[in-house]
Amino acid sequence: MTIYAIGDIQGCFEPLQRLLDKLHFDPAADQLWIAGDLVNRGPDSLPTLRYIRSLQNSAISVLGNHDFHLLALHYGIRPRRSKDSTLDQVLDAADADDLIDWLRHRPMLHHDPALNCVMVHAGLHPRWDIRDAEQLASEIEALLQSTDPAAALKELYGDTDGNWADIRHSPDRLRYAVNCFTRMRYCRQDGSPDYACGDVPGSQPSHLFPWYDIADRPTKEQEIVFGHWAALGLHQQPGVHALDSGCVWGNCLTAARLPDFQITSVSCP
């Protein structure tokens, strides 16, 4: 089996099909790992969701912030806005309930110990070890997959930041974790996330650091695959594989073959 990890698709179904053709992807023999944000901004969120769902166990997709937002719209946690118009095709589809039910059963994190590889949408908090991350992800997934997903989303969806040492025993710990898994790019030196800055590293305020560069991060020994950070683009350094190469912004859609992380991309007009 060949595994390909793919960055943010965001409704760019046609480039996805070209990328899979270029990879000679065979669902019967291969597997896709998708770093979240299947939907929004691009033109084809609905066929993208239907296709990834149809792959069943041949695709593993973690939840991204845009996927979370789609869940919040469906369950009435957030009102529809004009900027959400690319999600209307999903929300108004005849099979919307089935697609949303499938989406809320996606993991927050995927860990393959045999490959020593972890996939999340945005990042792992620099004060978590892999056991912390897996435990938090499991608790979030249990809430989302419960019989009352609307109540779960009310608890999980929204802003929460601060220092993990102060948050870890508070009622907001899982909301904080959702934000780290799906929105984090930069942290302060104490590990507290900053969600406002999305600049290219080197242009950010001096008190902020990419989450993966925080000193003494316990997950430095893992290979971490993530997306979310289009301004960062395709970026690889030891143990770090950022795969959001900005397809929806007219750049590229990128796949990394595991475990050697050989890169294949297609252009996204």
Q: How far apart lie the N and C ends? A: 31 Å
- Give the CATH topology: Purple Acid Phosphatase, chain A, domain 2
The spatial strand order of the largest sheet comes to 3-2-1-12-13
Summed up, the helix count is 9
Helix content: 25-40%
Mean pLDDT: 95
Q: Tell me about the biggest sheet?
A: 5 strands, mixed
Radius of gyration over C-alpha positions, nearest whole angstrom: 17 Å
Total number of distinct structural domains: 1
Q: Report strand %.
A: 15-25%
For this entry, give a set of tags.
269 residues; alpha/beta; Purple Acid Phosphatase, chain A, domain 2; 5-stranded mixed beta sheet; 30% helix; 17% strand
Explained architecture:
With 269 residues, the protein is an alpha/beta fold. The protein has a single domain (3-267), classed as Metallo-dependent phosphatases (Purple Acid Phosphatase, chain A, domain 2). 30% of the residues lie in helices and 17% in strands. The chain is built from nine helices and 13 strands. The strands form three sheets. It has a five-stranded mixed beta sheet, covered by helices on one side. It has a five-stranded mixed beta sheet with strand order 4-5-9-11-10, with no helix packed on it. A three-stranded antiparallel beta sheet has the order 7-6-8, with no helix packed on it. The two termini are 31 Å apart. The mean pLDDT is 95.
